[in-house]
């Protein structure tokens, strides 16, 4: 902000420009009056500052709680995933052992029965996009009446 007198030259003419009081002490006292604010505004500003600090503290506290909760939930999720993985491994091992034991029991004429055991004949559980109903019907008919050589 600009106070005081300034000398300037315009087209060779010297003139004095004035914005406000020429006395510098008067200018300082005017600035002090402008800067001094009423007691109610100062009080409101302090209260607002306290409210904002309290809100910041609350938000930091809530953020810390959320982080703790997220860490706990993540640990629980990892525990559930590990448990599920162990169960899957155990069931796969058991299925593999049963498959190996069944593979050793090979008798002539039971080939189609073994193929039928390996195939899923339930059309609703099939996750394939292709239509395999004809192949399913062929395998079922071969299981019921195997080809004679």
From TrEMBL:
Main location group: membrane
Keyword Membrane: yes
GO CC term, one of those recorded: synaptic vesicle membrane
Database matches in Pfam families: Clathrin_lg_ch (PF01086)
Keyword Ubl conjugation set for record: no
Membrane topology: Peripheral membrane protein
GO terms classed as biological process: clathrin-dependent endocytosis; intracellular protein transport
GO molecular function: clathrin heavy chain binding; structural molecule activity
Keywords associated with the record: Coated pit, Coiled coil, Cytoplasmic vesicle, Membrane
UniProt similarity note: Belongs to the clathrin light chain family.
PANTHER family recorded: CLATHRIN LIGHT CHAIN (PTHR10639), CLATHRIN LIGHT CHAIN A (PTHR10639:SF1)
The protein's name in its UniProt record: Clathrin light chain
Organism the protein comes from: Spizaetus tyrannus
């Amino acid at each position: 902000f600009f106070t005081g007198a300034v000398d300037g030259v315009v087209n060779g003419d010297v003139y004095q420009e004035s914005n406000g009081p020429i006395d510098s002490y008067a200018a300082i006292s005017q600035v002090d009056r402008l800067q001094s604010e009423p007691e109610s505004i100062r009080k409101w500003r302090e209260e607002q500052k306290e409210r904002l600090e309290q809100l910041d503290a609350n938000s930091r506290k809530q953020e810390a709680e959320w982080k703790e909760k997220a860490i706990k939930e993540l640990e629980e999720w990892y525990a559930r995933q590990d448990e599920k993985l162990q169960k899957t491994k155990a069931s796969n091992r058991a299925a593999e052992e049963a498959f190996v034991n069944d593979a050793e029991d090979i008798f002539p004429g039971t080939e189609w029965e073994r193929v039928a055991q390996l195939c899923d004949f339930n059309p609703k559980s099939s996750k394939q996009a292709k239509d395999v109903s004809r192949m399913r019907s062929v395998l079922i008919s071969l299981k019921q009446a195997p080809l004679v050589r």
